[in-house]
Design goal:
Shape: elongated
Number of strands: 6
GO molecular function, one term: heparin binding
Main location: secreted
Order of helices and strands: HEEEEEE
GO cellular component, one term: extracellular region
Strand order of the largest sheet: 1-2-3
Structural class: alpha+beta
Keywords: Disulfide bond, Secreted, Signal
Radius of gyration: 33 Å
Strand content: 15-25%
Number of domains: 3
Organism: Cuerna arida
Length: 124
């Protein structure tokens, strides 16, 4: 009899914990975890991207709130990495030297077309 009473208590405690956990989950779904609920309905006008900052390799833009909304920031600034610029530097491959004292071979490639953004020679 004592065994059945203990089993019954364990059953009811487990059921209470389960109901409580489901209730907390529903409340969390309604309220949110606080990270993104307030900004869910915030709509922003996107400004143009800035030029790429060469030191940080980032570009940024300003976002402005379209309509006043409780819990929404009036302006935001976002940034992202710039895409690597495609270099148009084309080189004519030179010939390899004989091995030097350090057992290395060197090749000097020369720029095909003059371009101030490119090195005139490239050592490989």
């Amino acid at each position: 009899m004592k065994f059945f009473a203990t089993l019954l208590v364990v059953f009811f405690v487990s059921a209470a914990v389960l109901v409580s956990a489901k209730s907390m989950k529903k409340d969390k779904d309604k309220v949110g975890d606080g990270s993104n609920v307030a900004t869910k309905n915030c709509h922003y006008e996107k400004g143009p991207w800035s030029e790429c900052d060469k030191t940080s390799n980032l570009k940024s833009r300003q976002l402005t709130l379209k309509k006043p909304q409780a819990g929404c920031e009036q302006t935001k600034s976002i940034s992202k990495k710039c895409k690597k610029a495609k270099k148009s530097c084309k080189y004519e491959k030179g010939t390899w030297t004989e091995c030097n004292a350090d057992k290395e071979m060197i090749r000097v490639d020369k720029l095909k077309r003059k371009d101030d953004s490119c090195e005139s020679e490239k050592r490989v």
